[in-house]
């Protein structure tokens, strides 16, 4: 199969950012034609089950200098966006400060953590950085790349996801956080919470970015289409994962960087309209929203905010803020969560402060604790 490789001069790559610069975007004339109904239920702090998601574009900038692994200073350099200033210092607050500022969320899904699969020290350092003397404790889980043909750059410091569970959630009976056997690039972590009143599974995903770079068989290394092809295959595999839980009576939450701007409302100054990107968008919306045999998902941001614009991806430089941005980090839920009135909030923390050393800002969705659980204590100190 003859493949055209990605132009080396292209400013955005699979390992870097997903978005083209403003001049390569196109405005969509009918962006405002569709009217989306919105719902704005309110929840009190003591009735808030917070699910956060953030593409951190390397976990390093969230680790205090005194807690960083010595290996991180000698490892091969990561791609653009490591999140450090000129002297190697952090451009953002520590991980613990982030958790405190957002009132100790029960669940945090981090994507693109860029930890080598062999680096046990940094994994321990992340969990240490998430904990402290004040406030609740957290447990850290990781899925890191183990694909020897598709995830080998920068000494293995590519992709990778981490899930942080607050101690009261992590200690629930039957709680299990696991990888999936159909992904070897460190993109998916599944957390099962079967002991809740509403059986819930939360899937933290760093979804494949579509490019013309080759995708190789993880078993043989043979070229097997492009990253666009793999992205659409990833959609199918994720849908199968979701439907397997739905068939057993679970409600599902999907959070993460999904590397797709769903509609013209979700890109500024426009969305990507190249043929392959259009195919990716149609495939995503078909499988997770529109198809009779799909997930029938609810986009939490649209459900709460209607046609309001909000963007989770921004450029890495302060002067680029707002010039080329997308809503590609999503929180999607099965319809049963909405039918039970459990979805009560959704946010995009769209500020330079919240972006920190990343090129994405955090997002969250909020479920009603009173609706979804009886087993979780609400007595955690959130002062």
Characteristics of this structure?
383 residues, disordered N terminus, alpha+beta, single chain, 21% helix, six-stranded mixed beta sheet
Could you name the CATH homologous superfamily? Endonuclease/exonuclease/phosphatase
Tally of helical runs = 10
Computed CA radius of gyration, to the nearest angstrom:
20 Å
- Taken as a percent bin, the fraction of beta residues is 15-25%
Q: Give the biggest beta sheet.
A: 6 strands, mixed
What string, H for helix and E for strand, traces the elements in order?
EHHEHEEHEEEEEHEEHEHEEHEHEH
Helix % is 10-25%
* Number of E-type strands: 16
**Biggest sheet strand line-up:** 3-4-2-1-16-15
Count of structural domains = 1
Query: SS-based structural class?
Result: alpha+beta
Report how far the terminal alpha carbons are from each other: 59 Å
Overall mean pLDDT stands at: 85
The low-pLDDT segments are: 1-18, 28-33, 67-90, 377-383
> So, CATH architecture?
4-Layer Sandwich
Write the CATH fold name.
Deoxyribonuclease I, Chain A
Tell the overall outline: globular
Report the top-level CATH class. Alpha Beta
